[in-house]
Amino acid sequence: MSSDAGVSVYSDNNMSEEKDKPLREDIRMLGRMLGDTLREQEGDATFELVETIRQTAVRFRREQDPKARQELDAILNRLSNKATIAVVRAFSYFSLLSNIAEDLHHNRRRRAHLRQGSSPQPGSVTLALERVLASGIDNASLDDFFAKAMISPVLTAHPTEVQRRSILDCQLTIQRLLQERDRIQLTPNELRHNEEALRAAIQILWQTRMLRSVRLTVHDEIENGLIYYTYTFLSQVPYIYAKIEDLLERHKGKEAPQVASFLRIGSWIGGDRDGNPFVTHQVMLHAAERQATLVFDFYMDEVSKIGRTMSLAERLIHVSEELEQLAAASPDIPASRIDEPYRRAFLGIYARLAATSRQRGLAVMQREQVNPTEPYADSAEFVHDLDIVINSLKQHRSDWLARGALRNLRRAVDVFGFHLASLDMRQHSKVHEQVVAELFARGTRRDNYLELSASERMKWLLAEISSLRLLHSPYLSYSEPTQSELRILQMAAEIQRRFGHAALPNYIISMTTGVINILEVALLLKEAGLLQAGENPQLGLNIIPLFETIEDLRSCSTIMDELLSLPYYRKLLDSRGNVQEVMLGYSDSNKDGGFLTSNWEIYKAEIELAKIFAKHKVELRLFHGRGGTVGRGGGPSYQGIMAQPPKSVNGQIRLTEQGEVVASKYTDPEIGRRNLETLVAATIEATLLSHDAIQENAARYYQVMETLSSTAFAVYRNLVYETPGFKQFFQESTPIREIAGLHIGSRPSSRKPSDRIEDLRAIPWVFSWSLNRTMLPGWYGFGSAVEAFVQQAQGEEAGLKLLQEMHEKWPFLQTLLSNMDMVLAKTDMGIASRYAELVTDAPLRNHIFGRIQAEWERSVKWLFAITGHTELLQENPTLARSIRIRTPYIDPLNHLQIELLRRYRAGDDVDQVHRSIHLTINGVAAGLRNSG
Fold this sequence. Notes:
Layout: H1 21-42, H2 44-63, H3 66-78, H4 81-115, H5 125-134, H6 139-148, E1 150-155, H7 165-183, H8 188-206, H9 218-252, E2 266-267, H10 281-309, H11 321-328, H12 341-359, H13 379-395, H14 399-403, H15 405-416, E3 422-428, H16 429-444, H17 454-465, H18 480-499, E4 506-510, H19 515-527, E5 531-532, E6 538-539, E7 542-547, H20 550-564, H21 567-574, E8 579-584, H22 586-593, H23 595-616, E9 619-624, H24 637-642, E10 652-657, H25 660-666, H26 669-688, H27 692-722, H28 726-733, H29 736-739, H30 762-771, H31 782-792, H32 796-809, H33 811-826, H34 829-836, H35 842-867, H36 877-905, H37 911-928
Parallel strand pairs: 1-2, 1-10, 2-3, 3-4, 4-7, 7-8, 8-9, 9-10
Antiparallel strand pairs: 5-6
Helix pairs in contact: 1-2, 1-4, 1-8, 2-3, 2-36, 4-7, 4-36, 4-37, 5-26, 7-8, 9-10, 9-15, 9-26, 10-12, 10-15, 10-18, 11-12, 11-13, 13-15, 16-19, 17-19, 20-23, 22-23, 22-30, 23-27, 27-31, 31-32, 31-35, 32-33, 36-37
């Protein structure tokens, strides 16, 4: 083959539309360059081998040709361990490069759509505000919404983000160079230099180690999380606010007041210690300090850049008195700046920022030498100084100067403060229980806390929470777990003192099963000074129960009713603005009860919680533990929020952004901004638009869903927890045991040192089924549930007709089936069958895989029957195209992984085999994009 053979790698994507021509061209070019790199670095023979494997895998996929299967097996069986690594890396990078081209094309199509003046699309803030204003809502109601709204994506560190920072940097370089070709008319010489830079970046990519050599530490996860603020959040969050204010200004016909800062970023990275022994009090402090360092570095850079542009001379303008005072207060007034008040003012602001960073012990690089001055007490003082500058500029009609970078900086300070992101703490309820029991035993000599009834425990807890005395003493000795928890809480108080209450505002309780779990945390907070007891108590953190299992979801409204009925807890809540946050765990409920039941139980829980909170006149804020994949509650954010029950969003929502989805959503600033806008748009519409049509049919629809859920739950539980040998099938037909050795996260894969499915964390559970292309957590049980319902209905046609009506009118079912449609499209039962062959017990393999395959066929059949579709992703051609593009590179990785697993489990434990398995895990995850 010639060096142009890379074109053939993409020749079967069936992308004939003219609008996709640039995507085809980008993919061909990148494929050709990677092919050339492969020839240069590994030789012609390796290149030809890669292409042969790809073509054979495509034939096997398309035709399920037994001959192609035999040929593929023969090729893979002959591969040396060294050749295997080269082949795996080649397909992984093919997939990565196609992802880059695809993301660029999304941005390209969106810009073309906007240039043509087309109507805004669902998920845009523009369309959301247009819909709300067209509905007749008045300005006062809209202002009230923004005043009380709270929208917060929360970044979490989970072990499915497999990209190394070095690989991500190469990816960004390639992306930037492609954008340059797309947006700028390059001369022939510039085009040549651009192509050389692309080839250089791909060469770096090829010669960069794909895998981490050591396990990721929490410090690494903190650093990885921070890059998305630099890439996207610090620049794009202010952009969204400016867009909203400009839209409202045009609507009102005059300058609109500033919208309150409702969109904020949260983080669990460095504060989530549930099952992660590596998150210590020092680590939590490090997370807070690194976040603050980054935001101060950003502010000082922006102040320096803006100050240099502010060359406005006194003799040409008339500044405000406040601006004159601000300029005069600067400790550094060079002679060359004596008649430039704005530059002097910015020098003073810069000096105060430098002093503030030093006062807080942060290692921030100074760009300008300034004399010592008074530090800012808090970020509000910084905002005040920026407001003085903005108001003075407007006074002498320099509005354009007041709007651009200065306006965005002012908004960034209001949003990110001196802490950057709100860090959440999380710990398991059982840990709190043990610590409280020890505190009672040592502090009051009552050592039977764990033996008490629930009512007696509650009496003890309420008495101590309302008491001014402390249980712990520096003169007593405690076990290491108790000391660790006390140190964590003491550090939380220190972080609040140094960086403000917004730096660490939330405490989440995993596996909440009762009111006692919440009161135990309240007691522990009191011990650290984060709860001030007395007649008018003050609570320094939001205490957030997390309901995770199906059983806990079903009882959560009862638990919250009991909690909100406690007079002393209500006093604590009053000190937090009478807002109570509740978190719902999608991942564990899905693993516990299956896809359909998990979603339905969460939906019901939200309805009941809304009723309970209305009864107690307390404001509910829901925190959705949505993962990146459908198997962990993920899926498109706009549809997910719009599918929530009426009155459950109410302007306030938090949701987790997990695993590899963080990189795919927030690495590119334009894509990141669209994703953030989507959250805002959906929250606006879900809160302010009418849901009357849903309410009219609620009783009928809910009854049907209850029936479907009951059947799906039984079918799922029967397979996963009641079928003899299922654990063996799971462990042998997926790479779950090999995942444990991949350095992709600091957290252990199981909550306990066991191989029980019950103890396995939901993330590796979903990740494993994704890697073997079964995707079982995202659909299993649906087909049997629908089939049983239709057969039991009064006439099969009547049952199906009702389900079709529900799908047409009910956003919840629309979203549920749309997400399942996506998962079924990514499922490949042909490849899954090959993984099943790894199961050593043939009768067990045939029995369980036969059930899985039959259920998949039932699920597809009834999905089509309800939606009226004849193929998967019929209404989502963009995603269908995306899967077609990536499949030729993912499939060979799966086939290679199967062969490598077979070798490894047969005793071929050489380092190259183990490393190759991990490379295939990395490659498949990157190709699927939302795999775990």
